Amino acid sequence: MSGTRNNAQKRPQRVISFERGSGGRRIATLKVQEPAGILAAQGNVIPPHEVEGWFMAAAPQRDVNSGAVEAMTTSMNMLRVTEPFAPPDPEAAAPVARVKKAITTLLTDLPPLFSNGTRAVAEASATGRQPFISADQVAAIGVLLAAAETARGSFFWPSRRRTRDEEWHDIAALIEFHASSVWCNVGRSIGGTKPTSPLVKVIQAALGRIGESPRSGDAIAQALVRRRRMDRVDNSGNAVVSPTTGNVESSDYKRKKSN
Asked: 250, 237, 239: which is closest to 67 by C-alpha?
């Protein structure tokens, strides 16, 4: 368990993952075990006006996007009542990695097979010829493709254990992505990575509120710089909370190289 949390009762577990979405945009996704959704509405709940207060205290002159504030609030309450997930042992991680790879292969190869098969069946039907693939086979490919697409969004086990630094760095990155939505959706930049920048102040406030160990402005700034070096991004991000699963998805932003 990370941070200052020391609860005797085991918390639901969470995973923060980072993947490329359509158009090459980087997506950060927070997935949680139940009953995290129920627990998030209990106890010392973080309300939206408190989250908005973090932004107003950090940068009083900036407007905020209320929808993005709501999304970040949901994320913060989920983080508040969960703990990081890790594979129980290396043997459990190996099949996870293989299945993830298989899903990626299916998502790459099945769409053209489905498209070509659908077209072949239609053309054969129009000309009276026997198609090289039956309609039932095409339908089966479609079912498999749909299952792979669903699995991509729900098969989220990490393939290795995370270090304590990586755990809070991931949380800080998720907060940064939400901040990009809160500020950028109203046409504002999210600020720099100096220890006294508004972004760092928001991350500090959020980390403390969800029960993580206090982090200095310098430590947060260094973590942000390290991540930005790994992934150059622009300032256009959006945070979305799934109305059905409660999962929080936040789009990263690609910053043009300036140094």
From this structure: 239
Q: What is the pLDDT of residue 19?
A: 73
Report pLDDT digits (tens) over 200-240: 999 999 999 999 988 999 999 998 888 777 665 433 344 44
Contact at 8 Å (CB) between 198 and 175?
no
Q: Are 203 and 176 in contact (CB under 8 A)?
A: yes
Alpha carbons 215 and 139: distance in angstroms, whole number? 53
- Do residue 244 and residue 166 come from a single domain? yes
110 and 212 assigned to the same domain: no
Residue 52 maps to a domain: yes
What's the maximum distance between 2 C-alpha atoms anywhere in the chain? 73
Give the number of domains in the chain: 2
8 A C-beta contact, residue 145 and residue 114: yes
How many CB atoms are located within 10 Å of the residue 91 CB? 8
Say yes or no: 178 and 243 in one domain.
yes
Helix (H, G, I), strand (E, B) or coil at 250: strand
- The residue assigned the tokens 């690609």 is 254
Is the pTM value of this prediction over 0.70? no
Residues 67 and 96 in one domain: no
Range of the domain at 139: 90-154
